[in-house]
Amino acid sequence: MATTDNRDPRVIRTHNDVPAVALRLLLDEGWEAVTPARVATEAGYSRATVYTHWPERVDLLRDAFAQFGEMPHHEANGDAETDLRGELASFCRAMVEHRLDRALATLAERAQTNPEIAPIRDAFVADGERPMRQILPALAEGPAAEAALQMLCGMVTHSVLMHGNPPSDEVLDAAVDIVMRGLAQRD
Amino acid sequence: MATTDNRDPRVIRTHNDVPAVALRLLLDEGWEAVTPARVATEAGYSRATVYTHWPERVDLLRDAFAQFGEMPHHEANGDAETDLRGELASFCRAMVEHRLDRALATLAERAQTNPEIAPIRDAFVADGERPMRQILPALAEGPAAEAALQMLCGMVTHSVLMHGNPPSDEVLDAAVDIVMRGLAQRD
Question: What is the rounded CA–CA span in Å between residue B179 and residue B11?
């Protein structure tokens, strides 16, 4: 990708460093740690620099989530059942290993009281769901496909955010079995 | 229920008023509004009173969630499929009408960084899931029952917390169809 970026290299560096620090603070300590003063100190910039580039906290959050980067996903092999199982396992791993649990919990909570956060959450969730949305058309369409997606992703988010742990392998397997059989048996 | 409460009636009143105000602030404005100073002002008590009864913020949160009271649930009629549909519809309504979305988002987010919140979340979630856990044994057991529960509840929490809306009636219906057929077709 040879896009030309004509900005001052120092500006580019600031634009990468500061959100990376904001994301680390968010995942390590939670949203309340992500203040311009704290981020400036940790990133080694002045508070004025942080305020100039990110006048609103929501701007900093948006750029911090962009730093989350590409989540590891299962590499699709074309068999829908295998791909569903692989993608769900990747989702569970990202919850633990990439602290996606904290990222999603923060976005869910912040979006409740700050309407500006909802589009950041929506974009982040859409990115995460994309691979599963590519697998499902081989199995179902319309409300059945949407139900399967919401149930399978939802099992993982509910288990992690409401129970504190991803579902066990046995429960994941049973869920895919139920969905595969339930979809195959439709009228 | 004729339990005898020998505490000073003023103490009992404080113990009900203050958590009710804390819960209202939490649902209206989010966790950051629930400071002892703000709660004291809104409830018409001194800050000292609030600090005396709830030395830690987590104590106040625990009592606030106890004020959430009994969520409206579907009245079971004994047909598992009808009961599942009814219970899911009640869950969706509570998300919107009782602002269960905000309650769950706050608990999920706070539990990430404060281990003392996890037991409050767990008790609240267990209460909410109880009716569905009573319906499922008629349909499945073991990992299949747990998978069905996590998928059906998860569809609602994922949809509300990650997409900002409960699932549509069409998607809810499709989900119950998939689960009923998937469970019926098990080996």
Answer: 49
Please report the residues numbered 138 through 177 in chain B whose beta carbons come closer than 8 angstroms to any beta carbon of chain A.
Answer: 142-144, 146-148, 150-159, 161-164, 167-168, 170-175, 177
Cα B46 to Cα B37: distance, rounded to the nearest angstrom: 8
How many C-beta atoms lie closer than 10 Å to residue A184's C-beta?
A: 13
Instruction: Count Cβ atoms within 10 A of the Cβ of residue A49 and give its class: 0-12 exposed, 13-18 middle, 19 or more buried.
Output: middle
Predicted structure pTM score: 0.90
pLDDT digits (tens, 9 = 90+) for B115-169: 999 999 999 999 999 999 999 999 999 999 999 999 999 999 999 999 999 999 9
> Per-residue pLDDT for B3 more than 80?
no
Residue A54, pLDDT above cutoff 60: yes
Scanning B106-125 for CB atoms below 8 A from A yields: 106-113, 118, 121-122, 125
Q: Between vectors from CA A31 to CA A27 and to CA A32, what angle results, nearest 5°?
A: 125
Per-residue pLDDT, A106:
95
Task: State mean pLDDT over B55-72.
Answer: 85
Min Cα–Cα distance to chain A from B6, Å = 36
State how far the Cα of A177 lies from the Cα of B144, in Å rounded to an integer. Answer: 9
